[in-house]
Amino acid sequence: MTQAHELAHTGLLVGARLITLAGNEGYGIVEDAALGWRQGRLDFVGALQDVPDAWRSERDVVDAQGRWITPGLIDCHTHAVFAGDRASEFEQRLQGASYEEIARAGGGIVSSVRATRAASEDALFDASLPRARALLRDGVTSLEIKSGYGLDFANERKMLRVARRIGEVLGITVRTTFLGAHALPPEFAGRADDYVEAVCEWLPRLQEEGLVDAVDAFCERIGFTVAQTRKVFEAARALGLPVKLHADQLSDGGGGALVAEFGGLSADHVEHTSEAGVRAMAAAGTVAVLLPGAFHVLRETTLPPLDAFRAHGVPMAVATDCNPGTSPLQSLRLAMSLACTHFRLTPQEALRGATVHAARALGLADRGRLQVGQRADFVLWNMAHPAELAYWLGGELVEAVYAEGRRVA
Ligand code: NIG
Ligand code: FE
């Protein structure tokens, strides 16, 4: 007798057109295809005619009716847990104030810190869940969420707990990143080194509670220096935690090279990363995470060194950076579109950026492609051509979303 939970984890999708992303380039298309999974893992990816006959009676069969199927999208950089909003700062910027000016005047990240601290854990969960759900309904099955609007032990912990709960409730993977070194909280004004010390002291306690998958910092004029970031990374390394970095977003602070030196998973933003930084990233296997939403909202003009990334073989991921300040973006498909328009990625590069390379930016080897052995995370799309994923601005393209073989949207 098949167990109920096993049934939910076991299935066969027929009548599909697969975008497998197998290999290093191309969509990896398989027409007239089937997708099989067992215990939440893909155990068949290929031509329908090659499916063992018995499977049709043994498994839950879903007819894709000729629809395109991709791996579940992976949003590898978000700040989706926060309270309040910063619409008034959006208005101020439209009247000429810059992001840095607003931050120096006590707004920016610290304004979201005030709202996030004031919210109870339940209120924070209620405010944040719809954003994660919007990402899921647009095809995301794995989602990174950072802390960084708490900036004290209890509130960073609260954010990370909320992030974990979102993953449980939605039935998708949430990877948590500790971003204690995001901004200097007011109680540490003028004492940035002391604050960094506190952050390094919170980290093992949060890790002990199973709340930390990776560690991040904001290395920038309005964030933390290279020396301070290094301290945070050393604390992470001592605990065996992987690092990533908000690197070279507003200026070239050597962030790309720094995170590469620590064998980091990713350098994110990277608009101002130098050629030397790109080389260091290539040597370390550090992914460049492109965040075109922030670029777009801040009306930036300096493009990331895209040709250098390509020339040196640095994989480029694409993420939403969903956050209340620089990127109130709740669709990874829209991020892919912005990456094509602003950064001239091809639609195929954008899709690999939101799947294969995003998985790598999270250190997850078991997803990002439709291949036997990978997690059964996949999306059925209503579209006629794969390029439509990066073509439409908004709208509804998703027919169904599966995570670990279970339908989640
Ligand atoms: O990725 N650059 C720093 N962190 C965020 C913005 C956070 C905020 O403004 O609230 C980013 O752009
Ligand atoms: Fe960010």
Automatic annotation (TrEMBL):
InterPro entries per UniProt: Amidohydro-rel (IPR006680), HutI (IPR005920), Metal-dep_hydrolase_composite (IPR011059), Metal_Hydrolase (IPR032466)
Co-factor binding comment: Binds 1 zinc or iron ion per subunit.
Primary enzyme class: hydrolase
Keyword Translocase set for record: no
Metabolic or biological pathway, per its Swiss-Prot or TrEMBL entry: Amino-acid degradation; L-histidine degradation into L-glutamate; N-formimidoyl-L-glutamate from L-histidine: step 3/3
Residues at which Zn(2+) binds: 77, 79, 246, 321
Catalytic activity as recorded in UniProt: 4-imidazolone-5-propanoate + H2O = N-formimidoyl-L-glutamate
Entry GO MF terms: imidazolonepropionase activity; iron ion binding; zinc ion binding
Gene Ontology BP term (one): L-histidine catabolic process to glutamate and formamide
Gene3D superfamilies documented for this protein: Metal-dependent hydrolases, Urease, subunit C, domain 1
Compartments where located: Cytoplasm
Binding-site residues for 4-imidazolone-5-propanoate, renumbered to this chain: 86, 149, 182, 249, 326
Record function comment: Catalyzes the hydrolytic cleavage of the carbon-nitrogen bond in imidazolone-5-propanoate to yield N-formimidoyl-L-glutamate. It is the third step in the universal histidine degradation pathway.
Family: Belongs to the metallo-dependent hydrolases superfamily. HutI family.
Name used for this protein in its record: Imidazolonepropionase
Organism for this UniProt entry: Pseudoxanthomonas indica
